[in-house]
């Protein structure tokens, strides 16, 4: 902006001469660098950084991106510096890497907590008149178990190691075991389907009075909860 307003710089530009000259490299801040530039018209010097700072942190954007990418790929400061070294670029010290890694972890935790809070609210609102504190908790617990199972069953993890083929057996078990633990089923041994080995007829054992009492009690409990 300065060279657009400086008469001497404008005159140099009209003669096809560069109005700006990089004088020196002031200091390195990880992958970011503070440079000193000089207007060739009036010889006024300016300092600027090669990367902007994040608005909610004092960290430079390029450093945070480098650490974030390293975490996502399961690498650390040594691997990052090795990659940057092959490109003849500055790296990050272990201290700076660890500090940024801690901040990134706190951001992820805050985002996860907010996401879980919104999920709880959506689930309870979706249940409408049938909503209970315990039903919402069971729904989220089952979802969490299914999510954990899916993480374990995907073909690759962050380090690239192969995993078993996906199976929904564990998901089915989670869907049944949670209501079972709430004791809304009667126990009738030996009731099984003949076409599916060891598959119990779970829902035929539902105790309607017990389920009704469970729902009623939790509706009353939900009335005291603040969502």
From TrEMBL:
<dbReference type="Pfam" id="PF20700">
    <property type="entry name" value="Mutator"/>
</dbReference>
<dbReference type="InterPro" id="IPR049012">
    <property type="entry name" value="Mutator_transp_dom"/>
</dbReference>
<feature type="domain" description="Mutator-like transposase">
    <location>
        <begin position="22"/>
        <end position="122"/>
    </location>
</feature>
<protein>
    <recommendedName>
        <fullName>Mutator-like transposase domain-containing protein</fullName>
    </recommendedName>
</protein>
């Amino acid at each position: 902006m300065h060279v657009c307003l400086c008469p001497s710089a404008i005159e140099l530009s009209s003669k096809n001469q560069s109005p700006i000259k990089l004088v020196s490299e002031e200091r390195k801040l990880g992958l970011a660098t503070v440079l000193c530039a000089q207007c060739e018209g009036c010889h006024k010097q300016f300092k600027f950084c090669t990367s902007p700072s994040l608005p909610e942190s004092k960290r430079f954007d390029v450093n945070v991106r480098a650490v974030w990418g390293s975490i996502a790929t399961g690498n650390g400061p040594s691997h990052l510096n090795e990659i940057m070294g092959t490109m003849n670029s500055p790296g990050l010290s272990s201290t700076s890497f660890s500090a940024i890694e801690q901040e990134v972890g706190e951001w992820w935790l805050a985002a996860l907590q907010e996401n879980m809070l919104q999920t709880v609210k959506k689930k309870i609102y979706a249940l409408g008149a049938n909503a209970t504190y315990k039903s919402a908790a069971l729904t989220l617990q089952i979802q969490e178990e299914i999510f954990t199972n899916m993480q374990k069953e995907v073909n690759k993890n962050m380090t690239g190691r192969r995993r078993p083929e996906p199976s929904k057996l564990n998901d089915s078990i989670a869907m049944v075991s949670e209501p079972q633990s709430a004791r809304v089923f009667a126990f009738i041994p030996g009731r099984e389907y003949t076409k599916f080995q060891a598959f119990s007829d779970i829902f035929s054992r539902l105790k309607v009075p017990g389920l009704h009492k469970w729902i009623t009690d939790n509706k009353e409990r939900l009335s005291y909860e603040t969502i």
